[in-house]
Amino acid sequence: MTTPLHLFLDVDGGGWHPAAWRWSRSTPDEVFSPGRLRGFAVTAQAQGLTGLTFEDSPLPDARNPVGHLDAVQRAAFLAGTTEAVGLLPVAATTYSEPFHVAAQIASLDHSSAGRAGWIATTSPAAVARSVDLPVAPDPAGELADVVHAVRSLWDSWEDDAVVRDVATGRYVDRDRLHHVDVDTGRWSVKGPLTVPRSPQGHAVVVVREEDLRHRADRSTADVVLSGDAGARRALGGPLVVLDVEVVLDTDAHAATDRLAALDATAPAPDRGRIRWAGSGQALAAWLTDLTGVVDGVRLHAAVLDEDLRTLLRTTVPALRAARVLRPPLPGATLRSTLGLERPANRYATGPALVTTGGDPR
Amino acid sequence: MTTPSSGDLRFPDAVVHFGVFFQGVNHSTIWSDPRSGSQMAHSTFVQLVRTAERGLFDAFFLGEGLRLREQRGRIHDLDVVGRPDALTELATLAGLTTHIGLVATQNTTYNDPADLARRLASLDVLSGGRAAWNVVTTDNAWTGENFRRGGHLDHADRYERAERFVRTAQRVWDSWDGERYTPVEVRDGFFDVEFTPTVPRSPQQHPVLFQAGDSPAGRDFATRTADVVFSRHGTDHADALAFADDIRRRTVAAGRPEGDVLVLPGTQIVVADNEAEVEEKARWVLEQQVTPATALSLVGQVWGEDLSHLDPDGPLPAHDPVISVVDGTRGAHRTGADAVALAQRWRAEAEEGKFSLRELVLHHSSERGFAGTASQLADDLTHWVRTGASDGFNITPYLVPSGLDDVVDQLVPALQDRGAYPTEYVGTTLREHLGLRAPLTRR
Ligand SMILES: Cc1cc2nc3c(=O)[nH]c(=O)nc-3n(C[C@H](O)[C@H](O)[C@H](O)COP(=O)(O)O)c2cc1C
To answer: From which domain of life does this come (chain B) (predicted)?
Structure first.
């Protein structure tokens, strides 16, 4: 059997191209509509994609001049009406409270029955300043510290802490709840979290390669988003997902013409990602060649309304026919879909309940 | 209760508004009953919110507490512990419902206004205008140990920070004019924010603002700022009426029309088929809520020591408490009370009524609310809203997730028969359900 290529799709605003919303069939209001978001999720799931990612920035940016809704809120909105696709929102580590982030992502993991990921990102100093929080002197170090604190909080409840022992009147076994006592000198977190340990133990932690302090910081990331197809060899540990911006041929226009027209409206900045233009079939052929080279690819559609159609009508069916995609099973956790182990609990006193990559439920 | 004559009814056409308060952490949820489901499972929340929506409830309400309760350094283990993050859970429920309002309790002390305003606005857009924010002020160093800022806020400053926090949030929500965002700049000693929002306005313009806090400062904050007060005055009619009158008076003093702030007390409702069953069921509920272990724990909070070795059916401790003030920082039941005076009063009452320790606690339990047949309750609740004691109720179900079934299946139809409850959702936004005017800053 071929190693599967995990396909992710980012759904944010009109698309990756800053001119997307002008070329989109959606009005600015429709870009934010919950129905449109749900439409993307249902289609992506039906087509066997591994996950949806939700990029975010609390401040306006060139990519998406229309705006953004909060990424965790968008992911959570889809949790109850999907059953197989992974949901991976951005939550920045530069200015967020680790306790809040840990609670939000753990809640998403509960309500999606174990399909949550967390794209932990640093954000520009302007963002921290704009929301009135201190700018971290070393954003990559801060990210590693925040991820460590969040993972500790996710372990602060052992899996079987809720005992509901009618005989003694105890709802929880307090010995299976733990203070985490993380102290970085700049901030500290006491714990335990207010949310019980979630189905995956830890949501899948995703970090952009440029946010990693050391290229092979295994304990920080489960998955690294990279713009470089050679990253897998260099990183060794985590799964590598290649970030690709695509522009595809449509019935009416060739990809290169569309890109030129989009750039003429608003030039796209270079985000250090591979940019791929061509037909849906050619994309499928290129992606097929990437199996074994990377573990997955995250596609950013130039104009979601247009490129997604081509993607779903030609690229994805071709990949499925070539058995390159292995669609997640309904009810499977994101970890088990990705072949990642369920983390053992660092505080567990008894034998760990589940230590292999099976579905823990 | 006496049947009021129509002359007593200041609001003869008023209807009852219902919300459901999923409290999570408390001792009013009977987790030990076989009918009680997981208190964390997503299916639990879905079942409860769907029942409430079927019953045309205005709102589904989540509480918040950002540290697990402890007593004398040990995590309190008798009650439900653990709950999802309110805004995240409500976003999921927004995807599974169409009309019911979604109220997130969020404090103003361990959040940042630009960030929280953005998340609330996102929920408001995703739900099509059904979001609300129950503004609370949680201020203690103990909760603060989970946050960067620690216990940074003096008690006296908390309502001032809350008010500036809400004002900043309102400016974030107001900065979208349908075409562009105006940057928000706030430098007021509490906040130093320069923020350009990215979230558009929802169909109800702003999330509805609830406030929960009972002190004079809290009431003034509510009547200057909020749309709805979530109160504790949901059992005794005279007490509720006095509270609602006070809110009306303060609302007018704040320069707003009299009925501009709705009052929705939290309460519990026990429905049964006849008088004998009502009595029996209410007693059962109370005894399940105040178990022997819970009674000992509550008395232990007042005495400031571990009393779990005592016999709950025996007398109260003969000695005085080892503390002078009931510890207010750790989720204690009677926060801030004079421990010795309270203990002496309790001992005197127990002696006079010949109460055991547990009977005394049952006697003082605050979880009473309403008990009756559907028809009695319908009369009672209609009387409450038509005399102006409240605008409705935020019901804490004593069983989760099935505890709202009899309210929806029996009480709601009885209220509808009396013309005191809507028969359909008239609008789609929470603001419409509650009959609220435009947000304060958009009038
Ligand atoms: C009915 C009611 C419900 C409350 N719910 C919460 C809650 O869920 N989370 C929280 O942190 N505080 C909650 N509070 C606490 C208040 O926000 C406030 O901190 C507290 O009542 C003390 O303020 P006060 O002196 O003005 O009453 C609640 C208060 C009331 C009256």
So the answer is: Bacteria
Coil vs helix vs strand at B415: helix
Q: Using a CB–CB cutoff of 8 Å, tell me whether A286 touches chain B.
A: no
- DSSP alpha helices (H): ranges in B354-400? 357-364, 374-387
Give, as one character, the DSSP assignment of residue A332: -
Residue A237 lies in a domain: yes
Q: Which residues of A touch B185 (CB under 8 A)?
A: none
Partner B contacted by A96 (CB < 8 A): yes
CATH at residue A301: 3.20.20.30
Residue A1 lies in a domain: no
Distance of CA B420 to the CA centre of its chain: 23
Q: What is the pLDDT of residues A122-169, one digit of tens each?
A: 988 888 777 777 778 888 899 999 999 999 999 999 999 999 999 989
User: In a mutagenesis test of the A interface, which of B30, B148, B298 is the best target, namely the one with the most A β-carbons within 10 Å?
Assistant: B148
Q: Do A132 and B128 touch (CB under 8 A)?
A: no
Q: How many CB atoms lie within 10 A of CB B437?
A: 13
Report the separation in Å between the CA atom of B136 and the middle of ligand 1, taken as the mean of its atom positions: 6
Residue A55 lies in domain: 6-358
Domain membership flag for residue A22? yes
Å from CA of A100 to ligand 1 middle: 20
Eight-state DSSP code of residue A237: S
pTM over 0.80: yes
Show contacts of A341-347: CB within 8 Å, 24+ apart: A342/A200, A342/A201, A343/A151, A343/A155, A343/A201, A343/A202, A344/A201, A345/A155, A345/A158, A345/A159, A345/A197, A345/A201, A346/A152, A346/A155, A347/A155, A347/A156, A347/A158, A347/A178
Contact A16, A275 (CB under 8 A): no
- Please check whether residue A185 lies inside any domain of the structure: yes
Best A27, A131, A166 member to test B by mutation, with max B CBs in 10 Å, is: A131
> Ligand 1 centroid vs B173 CA: distance in angstroms?
25
Q: Which positions in chain A touch B89 (Cβ < 8 Å)?
A: 76, 107, 111
How many structural domains does chain A have?
Answer: 1
Report which DSSP code applies to B409: I
For the Cβ of B214 lying below 6 angstroms from any atom of ligand 1, the answer is yes
- Does ligand 1 come within 6 angstroms of the Cβ of B317? no
A191·B146 Cβ contact <8 A: yes
pLDDT tens for chain B, residues 1 to 443: 444 454 579 999 999 999 999 987 777 899 999 999 999 999 999 999 999 999 999 999 999 999 998 888 889 999 999 999 999 999 999 999 999 999 999 999 999 999 999 999 999 999 999 999 999 998 778 899 999 878 777 877 889 999 999 999 999 999 887 777 888 999 988 898 888 888 888 999 999 999 998 999 999 999 999 999 999 999 999 999 999 999 999 999 999 999 999 999 999 999 999 999 999 999 999 999 999 999 999 999 899 999 999 999 999 999 999 888 887 555 556 677 889 999 999 999 999 999 999 999 998 876 579 999 999 999 999 999 999 999 999 999 999 999 999 999 999 999 999 999 999 999 999 999 999 999 999 99
